[in-house]
Amino acid sequence: MLVLGIESSCDETAAAVVSDGKLLSNIIASQIKDHSAYGGVVPEIASRKHLEAITYVISRALDQAQVTLGDLEGIAVTRGPGLIGSLLVGLSAAKALAYGLNLPFVGVNHLEGHIMASFLSEPRPQFPFAALVVSGGHTNVYRVGNYHDFQLLGQTRDDAAGEAFDKAAKLLDLGYPGGVVIDKLAQKGNPSAYPFPRAMKDSPDFSFSGLKTSLLVMLKKRGKPFGEEELPDVVASYQEAIMDVLVEKTVRAARESGITRIVVCGGVAANSRLRRRFAEAANQAGMALFIPPMILCTDNAAMIAALGEIVLANGRRDSLDLNAVSRWPLAVAPARGEA
Ligand code: KG4
Ligand code: ZN
User: Fold this and answer.
1) I need a labelling partner for 287 at 20 to 30 A (CA). Which of 69, 126, 180, 215 fits?
2) Ligand nearest to the backbone CA of 177
């Protein structure tokens, strides 16, 4: 089934074409430069930039896939979670195309899309697996039993891991988005130079706000910014504190659920240290590890098209009055609240 996917939940306008689980095109227009001066995504700017880019991005995705609008058999779009104004741009474009072309249309979950990105490259994971979705807005571990079968095993109680990267970069004046800058700088540093806290060690849940505060306290005590020689050690140690808990809690959650396969996805899964640490840990634990290629970790529409194709093939059709949703938990933890 030839499906066009559209993604506009945050600061990337993206479109992609998938056919029978194979990626035919993947176009992403990033707004990073439009937001970097503000140290984070400005929702109003994001919506406007999506509007400017959406038509062009869709036509490039069709061109790259060497298909025309007339060839399409379905349209999938991110319905949520995300910035409501941003989501509405992609959703409206998707509805217009579905209406105009008389095609089936589905609005899918962005987090589920991140997980499904792992099905776009070989080897594909088999069910069940433990999935860590680690991005700018989420740090969740799920037991994935099948398509649409998600059980929440752990989640952040405050900041997401990506947020911990972005906020540290802001404190250290390193620019936005923080993850990429810190990833690069940390490669030159010593990850055990500074003792940053690892919070909630015995819990399946995560907490990163104390880590960010400890960096802030460190900076205040110093009274001046870190010098060029110290900075790589600071960010390497800070990053390692994030990695330690991500790796430990995900592997533990998998083991306790009797699962031997781990999927790691979302923007932070593009991190080079994360990829190495998870490879080592999975190897040691005798588990199989699946991390999508970096371009499919950060926001993209390939994952939305891939998920959309599965959903459409299962017979689901959404009506054209479908609305966007800013919050949309994939699963609810029985005793610990919402995802
Ligand atoms: O999945 P994503 O593109 O958007 C959301 O759904 O949030 O994730 C964006 C997050 C940002 O916080 C960004 O700093 C982080 O992913 N990120 C990284 C890296 N690349 C992106 N974090 C660590 N290392 C990276 N290489
Ligand atoms: Zn995302």
Assistant:
1) 180
2) 1
d(CA 265, ligand 2 centre) in Å? 9
Q: What pLDDT digit, counting tens, does each position of 275-325 carry?
A: 999 999 999 999 999 999 999 999 999 999 999 999 999 999 999 999 999
Q: What is the pTM of this model?
A: 0.96
Tokens for 133, please give them.
């979705």
Same domain for 42 and 165 = no
Domain of residue 59, CATH code: 3.30.420.40
Q: Which neighbouring-strand residues pair with 27?
A: 15
Tell me, yes or no, whether 133 and 76 share the same domain.
no
106 with 211, same domain: the answer is no
C-alpha of residue 56 to centroid of ligand 2, in Å: 21
The C-alpha atoms of residue 274 and residue 263 are separated, in whole angstroms, by: 12
Angle subtended at Cα 211 by Cα 210 and Cα 216, rounded to the nearest 5 degrees: 90
Overall residue count recorded for the chain in this entry: 339
Nearest atom in ligand 1 to 9's CA: 6
